Amino acid sequence: MKAEVTPADSRSRAPLLLLLLFGLLWLVASGLLGLVASVQLHSPRFLSDCAVLTYGRTGALAETAFVYGWLANAGLALALWILGRLAGEPLRAQGWALAGAVFWNLGVAAALFGVATGDATGFALLGLPGYVHLIMLFSYSAIAVSGILAWSGRLREVPYASHWYAAAALFLFPWILSIAHVTLFSAPARGVVQAIAAGWYAQCAWTLWLAPLGLSVAYYVVPRVTGRVLPSYEFASLGFWCLIFVGGLTGGRHLLGGPVPAWIASVAVVSSALLLFHTFVVLLNLRGCFSGGGIAIRFISFGIAAYIVGALAGAATSFHGIAAHTQFTHFDEAERQLALYGAASTLLFGGIYFALPRITGRAWLSGGLVRAHLFLSVAGILLLVGSLGAAAVIQSQDLSEPAVAFAAIAGHTRPWLVGATAAQAVLLLGNIAFTVNFVGTACTVLKLSEPASFNPPSAMEAPAP
Amino acid sequence: MRSNVIFFLGLFAALGLSWAGIVLGSNAQLGALAPYFDASQETAFPQGMPGEAARGQLVYRDLGCAACHTQQVRRPGFGSDQARGWGERQSVARDYIYQPYPQLGLARVGPDLTNLGDRKPTAPDEDDLLRMLYAGSDDMPAYRFLFEERRVGSGAQRSDQALQLTGALEPAAGWEIVPTARARALVAYLVNLKTAFDYPEAIPYVPPQPEGAAQPKPPAAPANGPAPSAPKGAAAAPAAAGAAPASPPGANAPAPTAAPTAANPGPAGVSAPTPTAAPAGSQIPAAAGAAPASPPGANAPAPTAAPTAAKAGGAQ
Lengths: 465, 316
Hints:
The structure holds two protein chains of two kinds.
Chain A: H1 7-10, H2 13-42, H3 55-87, H4 94-116, H5 133-152, H6 161-186, H7 193-226, H8 236-246, H9 262-286, H10 295-316, H11 320-326, H12 330-360, H13 367-400, H14 406-447
Chain B: H1 4-30, E1 36-38, E2 43-45, H2 51-62, H3 126-135, E3 147-151, E4 175-179, H4 181-191, H5 231-243, H6 285-290
Antiparallel strand pairs in B: 1-2, 3-4
Helix pairs in contact in B: 2-4, 3-4
């Protein structure tokens, strides 16, 4: 049995803790912005006199802080940690990772400032104004250097599934962003090709970057916690390549019925159905998480469940008959929250609960805050997705009746949108608890002048195999 | 997956596949879409926006209006887009070729704005829109920061642009509410949102009836009752077909090649790719002569009604 805290962990602390800390600060910031946006959705007068926080901007700010602030930082930290562990030695090129982390977050801050003061792009999942792309590109690549070096120095010649997903996310994001930069910013495509390219970027950012970051965590943590080899592991590589090859083609489903060639939507239908094979393999491999115990595995099982439900919903809404009802309603937002919050974010929460005691050598400061975070996250996500979904049903019925005015639709959906606001508040509360707990735990390490001695962590999960 | 090289090449190939298929493929199909020259009106459509309206699109984008408003009328069979009066036909790619930042939008918390400037029976005018932006409502935020509150000196004349407000919104005596340049640009943009011309590709496809499966061609025949999916489309088809009597989109019609190469009515400083020139052997002297005259100059101070002189014949 390997020791819980290896030198590989304790000597890789600096970049990992820095990335996680940045990520958590952005998580809380995006929670505040998301709360404001959510209030404005049912009470448009709220803060409407403040130009910086007009509704069109708060939504973009919250999303940018969440994706590029929280998911990117935490996902990178965990990807580096996993790749480093599988290499069995401390991370190399830590200076690159540290510098990259600082500049990446400067880039996020500049992007938020830009959006708030009038440089919004209007593209979903790509709120970053064009001028921060270069700094984001280079800083991401600098962070990824550490991970790619760890990949090439891995202990076992045949990489594991968590290897593939982490390396794919590290390698592909700079390419996706640079393609988007060229086609949308430096030499913008003409007319609706921009909308198609933006849809392609949003889908790739999900299937080739954020989802692999989350799945890498799940594929690493689940076998270690359950202590068993993943079942049907021989299918894992097929599932991986299915996601990588097919995932980027599914973006066109949001343009169904619009002023784009019909083949875009047809490709999306076919590839969304094909992508279900990947989803099925993930379920097959990771089904052990639904019977495991411990805090990390509870987050991860919730995240996997959300991932699968989200994939099914995405495949269903790529069909004309269903999309005709769900398109342009709050359903899109519900689906996005299920993916970004329910799946990606929850998998990363689970990964952090698993990783931090091993990185710091300390148990979590407060078990109560851990349980509070779990409860508030699960309740908040279910309430958020559920109430947005209910609002979408009403909105969809009303929109299909030409006689129903928009003021009436706003009135009908208001109770459910208030529910979504409550959910945002619950999630924010949970994330504040998480951040406090994280900072407290991390500080116990920073105070010591010498590396923390191994401390049998009581709040840890089942011993690793 | 033993080899690093094969792994990363595989990743690269996968990304390249979707990029080439989706982005390059659609760019090859639509990236060089030319305006459509209508011989009966001697004008090429779509028409560019006047300079102030083009600046207004930047305001629209920067305030994130697309978070709640779409600008696309979907095909028949998708919701109540046409029944709500948002447009008399579906939006097509050609509608957007002169827009540097097409705002298709992803949500309809508010109404679609595709054809706001040509809405039937009455389109809102600039004053209506300014008052709407200033006042806000229960389902739309107010945009007070786009307006200035100014003191009117005693005996001084009120600004001719001051909003005519009544009731609770009326400013205190001696004060007036004046729209800023951004508000005026935004409103100029909104009243210029028009999709007046019926392009041949905007004629909806009417799927053949399941009973008459032998008929492969989509006949524009509203005779056999309302099709289940598209009663609206069936009605619109003959109107659209009648719109372009001079140039049916047949094989040897010189129709869609007119391209005003010189005049690119995007906003100053934004370099939308110039429309590709018409094929060299173009035998349409009328088109070549008429096209440069049609789009207004890029930074003309733009009385906003400039390009509306010729309403499309298709709009009934």
